[in-house]
């Protein structure tokens, strides 16, 4: 099958590559673009480890074809740090609140939480849980992930987060 | 898991898409891809070509025209949740959309794909039957409307003819009154073990209109007409009438034996979903 020329703006940078139509976006990002931050967990649209932001939507990149994304803007975990290289609010939140253990789900969690906070800057804990329902974590039990996201939400609102990690 | 090989097209208009589709018997339309790509990974579907509707902007519109809510086929579940027109004219769709999958799937999964797919596990077909929606189908030979109630002929079998594309869903304004969608699922992101939609209205303490439809309790979504009739003309909340409606709904359920349970269990759960949906709809009416 003839390869297609695919151009994406990834984390603000123009990138391109050749891929068959059947190439999944996650494989294109990891293998062609060599950005291995987004993970592959289930490859069956269930776990959310492969979540990236595609034109302002959180998507499971194992269930999107690279050709479908042609011409789009993509943000991956590699684009979540501040421009000066320091940790972004969500990254800092996950670190401060122990929002990760093995870390496998974390790239997807953070990229998903990024979009959630764009849409709802002051979520309740219940709304955070509903908003990350497409991301599975097998380690943390989610308590500290919710806190990590609330830490980031508070920081982005210019407030202080007073709770401690579990 | 990677799908098998196929040719990929991204037409800019419905006419171009239907011409491409008509050229190849094995071509398939690609909408959000959240039913089709998983099936292609499993080789349960092996289309020779995918016609991606993602480039046809007009198919994403949500409008209210001529007394009807008009949902473009490519409007996503997320778009429905964000739409004031949907809240105003068909609020039950929001309740249902929130019970479908998870945020990531809702950003991409479309209303057209959900109703065209033909899987009895999809949640929107039953609701479209309850709302008496019509699907607009366009092909090489023109455009026609088919009612949701006449669209489903079997599991993965619909009234869509080769070369036809479902371009829109047209919904009459929802009856003012109470409504509910009750869905039993094992976890977030699971299809229904059993689900029921109820839309009704009450005048002077008596149920004067009622629709009851069922998801994943037969080879297609089902309209439980006898169940609805058992409530119409009866005092709202009359226990005997509700029992009769539940029994009539159970009588038409023929769920498959699958990982979600035995037919007996799923029928029992289906009865409970109908009962809860009636009670919640009555409380809101
Ligand atoms: C983890 C997960 C959980 C899910 N849970 C649920 C759930 O609980 N309830 C539920 O209802 N769904 C669920 N889904 C399915 C999801 O809602 C799908 O998005 C939906 O079934 C199909 O919509 P789509 O736009 O993705 O269609 P696609 O996958 O692109 O297409 C599905 C089928 O319909 C055809 N088609 C699509 N659009 C058109 C059109 N306009 N005209 C003609 N044919 C068309 C395609 O050719 C294909 O055969 C889930 C999916 C996943 C991945
Ligand atoms: S790898 Fe994509 S959802 Fe699990
Ligand atoms: S930290 Fe291990 S899966 Fe989430």
What is the arithmetic mean of pLDDT of chain B? 97
Query: What ions, cofactors and ligands are bound?
Result: flavin-adenine dinucleotide, FE2/S2 (inorganic) cluster
* Helical percentage of chain A: 25-40%
- Quickly count the domains of chain A: 2
Helix/strand order of chain B, N-terminal first: EHEHEEEHHHHHHEEHEEEEEEEHHH
The CATH architecture of the largest domain in chain B is 2-Layer Sandwich
Uncertain spans of chain B: none
- The CATH class of the largest domain in chain A is identified as Alpha Beta
- The total count of strands of chain A amounts to 5
Major sheet summary line of chain B = 5 strands, antiparallel
Q: Write the CATH fold name of the largest domain in chain B.
A: Uridine Diphospho-n-acetylenolpyruvylglucosamine Reductase, domain 3
Total domains of chain B, how many?
Answer: 3
Ranges of chain A where pLDDT stays below 50 over 5 or more residues in a row are none
Helix count from the secondary structure assignment of chain B: 12
Distance between the termini of chain B: 48 Å
Class based on secondary structure composition and strand pairing of chain B: alpha+beta
Q: Strands across the major sheet of chain A, in which order? A: 2-1-5-3-4
CATH superfamily of the largest domain in chain A: Beta-grasp domain
What's the helical proportion of residues of chain B? 25-40%
- Decide which structural class fits the backbone of chain A: alpha+beta
